[in-house]
Specification:
Helices cover 33% and strands 20% of the residues. The chain is an alpha+beta fold. It has a single domain (4-94), classed as Translation Initiation Factor IF3 (2-Layer Sandwich). A four-stranded mixed beta sheet has the order 1-2-4-3, with helices on both faces. A hairpin with a 2-residue loop joins strand 3 and strand 4 (80-84). The protein is globular. It starts with a helix and ends in a 15-residue tail after the last strand.
Length: 99
C-alpha cells in the first residue's frame, strides 16, 4: 500500500510520461491487461489513457487494471490514469526508490 507521500512522488514522476496503454470502447480486455503486464517488464510506472468512446471511467479502468496486474493505482484524472508496480528485476538505475 502506497503512502500519500509516495503517491505524490509517483504522480510527479508520471507527469512527463506519455501514455503507453490505451483503453477504448471494449474496456479492460484480456489484451489490454496483457499489454499492461508486458509494459511492467520494462518499467515500474505506467501512464494510460481512456478514450472518450470507452464505457468506463479512468478510475474504473485504473482499479480494474491494478487488480488484474497486481499493481497500485496511483492516480486517475480526466481520461488519464497512472499505475505503479515494483520490479526488482530492473537494473538499479531504472528503478524508482520510494521511501
Amino acid at each position: 500500500m502506497l503512502t500519500s507521500k509516495q503517491r505524490a512522488r509517483l504522480r510527479g514522476l508520471a507527469n512527463p510520461l506519455e501514455p503507453v496503454i490505451m483503453v477504448g470502447k471494449g474496456g479492460v480486455t484480456d489484451a489490454v491487461a496483457a499489454e499492461t503486464e508486458n509494459a511492467f517488464h520494462t518499467r515500474e510506472l505506467i501512464k494510460g489513457r481512456v478514450l472518450e468512446s470507452a464505457l468506463m471511467t479512468s478510475r474504473e479502468v485504473c482499479d480494474e487494471l491494478a487488480a488484474r496486474t497486481r499493481a497500485e493505482g496511483v492516480q486517475a484524472v480526466g481520461g488519464t490514469f497512472v499505475l505503479y508496480r515494483e520490479n526488482r528485476d530492473l537494473p538499479e538505475e531504472k528503478r524508482i526508490i520510494l521511501k
